[in-house]
Write the C-alpha cells for this entry.
Amino acid sequence: MLNLVKALLTAVLIIWLYIFEADSNHSILFLPLADIILIIFTTYLAGKNGVSYSESLFACALSRRIHIEAMLRIDAMPEIISLSWLLWCFIWGLSNNNKVRSLLILYHAGLTFDAGNARSIGAGMTPGWECWNLNMLFIFGFMRDPTLSHVKAEEIVNKEFPAERSTLLVNGPSYGNAKDMTTRSESELSCENVQKGLQEATCHYSLESRSSSGNFISGIFFAVGIILFSLHGFGSNAYFTCALIATLLSFILFLKTSFRQGVTYNDCLVAFSLGSVGICISALYSGYADSETFEIFLRKRIFAGGIHPNALAFQSMTLIFALVSWKDSEILPEVFRRVFKYLSIAVFLIVLLGSGGRITWIITIFSLVMIFFKSSGTTVDLKFVSAFLVMLIGVGLWKFSLETFGYEIFRNERFFIWKAALDNIFNAPLSGYGFLSFATLPQSIAGNAIFHVQDWNYPHSHNAYSELLLTGGLPLVFCFIFFIRKWWKKNSDYSNSIIGISILISAFFDFPFFYPSILMITVFHFSSAFLTESFAPVANQLPSRNENKTLRKSRFIFMMLLSFAALLFQILPAFSTLLFEKSISSLKSGAPAWYNSICRASAIAPARIDLHLQRNLWELSTQAGTLNLNDFRERIIKLQKTWKNFFLLDYILGRIYYISGDYQKAKEHFKRSLELEPRDMKGIRWAFLALSRMYLKEDPIEDASNAIIRSDWGSSIILDHPVFGKSVISILAQKLRNQKDFKDFYYFALPLIERKEFFRFDEQNALSQKDISAEDMKYLSRIQMYHQGKYVELMSDLTAAASSSMSILDVRNLHLLMKTSEKTDNREIFEAAASETEKKWIYRSKYSEDILSGFLKTRYYFRINLYDKAEELLLRQLAIDSANPWMLELYGDICAASGKTDTAVSSWNYSLKRIRSARLDPFFADGARSVLGSMGDQWVVLYEHAFRAICKDSVNYHSEKWAEMQKRISEKLMKVENEQKKK
C-alpha cells in the first residue's frame, strides 16, 4: 500500500514536470539543466545514506518548485533563493536521519510567504492556500516511515545497542528520565548513555491505542469546522475551503510523524526561522532599492513582490518571540547557534519596523517586556532583550513624531471595513457566507467617510474573528473559543503562551492567515500543546507485534484516505492556477495559447471568480473589435447567478448596456452596483450613472456630484465628456457661485477651477459649509491664481506662508509651490519644496510613490541642463509607469540633449505607440498619473480601460491635446532624420 502510494506520488510529479515545466525557462540556478544536475546529484548522495531514489527525486523536485515560486514573487535578490536551495539540497543529500529530513521539509513552510500560486478576488492581494506542492511534501513526510510504530520494542533496543547491552528493563512510570531506568547490564553502561539510547529508540513509536484528549479535541475542532464549511456546498467559496482543509490536514499529519521522530518544539521554530530569513532579507533589499534616500526607506512600508507588509510584520513578530526564548537545538551546530539567533532576530526586527505594522509593533514591545520580567529560570538573554526593547521604543517614538503616523491611525479604513463586515454578519449570524466571501458581499459606507478612506473592498475583513463569523457564523466562533480554552489549560510553556496571546490580539486588527507560512506557524503554536502530549511514548505500554495491529492499520488507511481526499479537492483546482500562469506567459509572448489555457483553468475551478474575471477581461482587451457583446453579457449574467451581490458584475453589465445604447438598463445596473458598494473610490460608476441619466434626459447632478468629489477619474469622465462636459461644468459652476446646498464645496470647486471656471469666493458663506476649512479655501484661491497665470503673486503668497519653515505647507501647497517656482525659474525654492514633499508624503502601498514630484523634478532638471540627474529620476518614474507617453517623450528629449540619439528616437517612437492606449484615460492629458487605482477599485479600473477601447466617445477626450503631442513628437523625429541624412 505504502509503496503504491509513493509510486503514485512520483508519477504525479513526473506528469506535472512534463506538462507545466517542459516549456518553462524558470530555474533556480539560472539554467534548467543545472537544476536537473543538482537534483540528480542530491538524489545520488541521499541514496548513499539510505534514502530511496524515488523519495529524493520527489522531495528535490517539489523543493525546487517551491523555491522557484518564492523567487518569482519577490522582486529582489534571487541569489538568496538560489543559495537557499543549494544549501537545502546539500543538507538533504548528506543527512542520515529522519529528524533532519523532517525539519528540511518544514523549512519550506517558512519559505512560503506567498508561494501558493494564488490569485484573489481583488486584483492585488494573494491568498496562498493553493500550495499543493508544499502539501504534497508534508504528506510525503508523513508517509516516509509510518511503519516504525509497528516495530517491537525489543527490536528497536537491539538495533540501538550492542547485543551485550540489550538487557535493559523499564521499571519507571515514564520514558526519557534516567532516574526511572534500571539495568542488569555491565556497570560501565552509564546512566547518560541509557537515557540517550532510550530517547533515540522510543522516539520511533508511540502507543496507537492510547486515548488522547488532545487528539480528541483537535479532531472535534476540525470536524466541526469542516461540517460548517460544507454548509455552503459547492458554492463560490468551496475551492478556498478545500484548499484550507488540505493545508491544515497535511500539516497536522506531518507534525504527527515529526514529533515521533524526535523533532522538538524548538527544532520546528528554528526551521521556520531558517526558511523566513532569506525572504525577509530580500524584502529589506527590495525596500531599500525602491527608496531614493535612507530616510525614505525608513518611512516607507516594505513591499516584497506580492508579500504584504502586514504579513511580514506578523511572521517576524512570532519568530522574534520564539528566538528570544530559544533553547538549544540540534538542527544547527553549536558554534552557529548564537550567531544565527542574533542575526535572525536583527533581520526580523528591522522587517517589523520597516513593515509599518503599527499594532504588531506595539504588541511586540509589550510581549518582550513580559518575557523580560518572566525570564527567571529560562534561557532568555536579558541584555539582548533589553537592547532590542530600547531600539523598538526609540524607532517607535520617531515614527510617532511623523506627521503621517497620526493620519494612518485616525483615518484608517479598518473602522469602516469592520462596520461593513458587521452589517453582513447580522444578516446571517448562524450560517455565515462561506470562506473568503467578504469581497463579494455588499460593503456599504457612510457618505461622510468617503474622503477619509484610502482603500476599500478587500477580499477579507481585516479581523480574524469577523472572518470566522462571516465564514461559519456563531457555531464556528464557539468551536474556536472551545479550542482556545483547551489550549490555554494544556499549554505549559510560557514563551508559547506569549506567542499565542500575541497572535490572538493581532488577529483583532488583521487577517494575515491566507499566507501558508503564517497559517502553519499559527497552527503549530496552538496545536503543539496537544501534539507533544498526544504523541509522546508511555512507559510500560510498549506495543507488541500483534497488539492492536488491525486498529493501527485501519487508522493509517483512514488518515491516508482523508488526506488524499482533501488533496484531491486542492490539486485539481491547483492545475487551474498553473494553467493560469501559463496563459500569462503565452499572452506576453503574443501566442494564442493563452485563451485555451485560461478557459481550461476556469473550467477546472469554476468556483474561482477571479479566473472568470481575468478571462473576460483579457477577451475584452484583446478582442475588442470582434467580441460579441451579447455573448459576453450572457456570460456575466450566468456568473451573477452564483455571485448575486458582487457589485463588480453589475458594473460590467451596466457598461455593456451603455455601449450598446440601452441607457435604461445601464442605469439600473449602475444603480444596483452602487447600492451594493457605494464607496466607488474612483467615481467611475457614479459617473456612468450620471451619463446614463443625461442620455435619458433625467437630472444627473446628484450622481455627477458624487462622481466629481471622488477622484480625477470621476470628475474627468463627467466634466471632460465630449458631449455633456461643458453643460455639466456650467450647471455646477452656477451652483457654486450661489454656494447653496453644497456641503463639499472644496471638492466641487477644485476640478472646476482646474478647468478654468473662475468665480469669486464668498469665504464666509463657504466656510459655513460642512467639511470646508480655511486652509481648503486658501488653497482654492491659490490654485485659481495659478490657472489664471498670476505666478509672481502666487509665489509671493506661498513663500510668505512658508517664511518661518517650509514644513508649514501641506503636500498640496508644496506641489503648487514646485509648479510655480518652475514657472518663475526659482531653483532654490523648487529644491526646498521638493525636499519637503518627500518628508510629508504618505507611503501607504507599493505604488504610492509621489510620481508628480518626480516628474516635476525631472522636467525642471532637464530645463536647467542637469541631464544625468534628470535621467536618473525619470528612469525611476518609468519603472513605475513604463507606458506613460509624456514621460517617454521627456526621456527622449533628455537622451537627445545628452547625445544619445538612437535611444531618443526609440523612446519617441514608443511614446507615439503608447498614445493610443494612454488617451483612453479620461483624466490623462499630460504629465504624471497614478498607475493603478486603490486596492478595492483595481478590477473596476482594469475593466474600464478595456471598455473604453470599444466605447465610441472615449477617444474624443482631450483630442486636441493628444493631436498636438503627436505632431510635436513627429516633428522631433523628422528633425533627427533630416540631420542624419545630411551626415
Q: What stands out?
A: The longest strand covers residues 168-170. Residues 549-589 form the longest helix (41 residues). The chain has a mean pLDDT of 76. The CA atoms of residues 128 and 300 lie 25 Å apart.
